[in-house]
Specification:
Blueprint: E1 4-7, E2 30-36, E3 40-45, E4 52-53, E5 64-68, E6 75-76, E7 89-92, E8 98-99, E9 112-115, E10 124-125, E11 139-142, H1 147-154, E12 161-164
Parallel strand pairs: 1-5, 4-6, 5-7, 6-8, 7-9, 8-10, 9-11, 11-12
Antiparallel strand pairs: 2-3
């Protein structure tokens, strides 16, 4: 099986429409919104940015192997990427301030998370022990000097092993 990488668009250009069974919402004033197919809807703010990934947005999508969430996104909804069984790697930008319950539930092949949030105290991460690989086998690469902060804030509640990025 050939995997695909999902890079979410942040432009309002029509060629950057979102695909898949996804629901999206923006937290600022709405500038543009629409749909692609029966189940995919999207909303961009007045600056042309997608600032929230809604609940179950990409749930059960079995074709993504890597996901790179763009700068500007602030929220990852509950079960947004749940049951994405082919997913092996996720990149989370510095602008994310909230990751909701079970955002990555049953992503049992996801080996790597690349977290770019530099201050773990400004992040709300409501995860469960069913997210990512079992028994903290998923490695979460965090910015240099923040691994202790991540472990203190989320070590018991998030099913990842925090390590300093090189």
């Amino acid at each position: 099986m050939i995997g695909t990488m999902l890079v979410l668009p942040v432009s309002s250009k029509t060629e950057n429409r979102l695909l898949g069974g996804a629901g999206f919402s923006a937290s600022a004033d709405t500038a543009e919104s629409g749909s692609c197919g029966e189940n995919a809807t999207w909303t961009l703010d007045t600056e042309g940015k997608l600032t929230a990934i809604g609940d179950t947005a990409f749930a059960s999508c079995e074709s993504f192997t890597e996901i790179a969430i763009p700068e500007g996104v602030t929220t990852i909804g509950s079960k947004a990427f749940g049951y994405c069984t082919a997913l092996t790697s996720v990149t989370i930008p510095s602008t994310v301030t909230q990751i909701n319950d079970n955002a990555f539930v049953c992503c049992k092949n996801c080996k790597d998370v690349h977290m770019h949030v530099t201050d773990p105290s400004k992040l709300t991460w409501k995860d469960s022990n069913d997210d990512f690989m079992p028994s903290k086998q998923t490695q979460c690469n965090v910015p240099q000097g923040t691994a202790d902060g991540y472990n203190k804030a989320f070590g018991d509640s998030v099913n990842v092993n925090f390590v300093a990025d090189e």
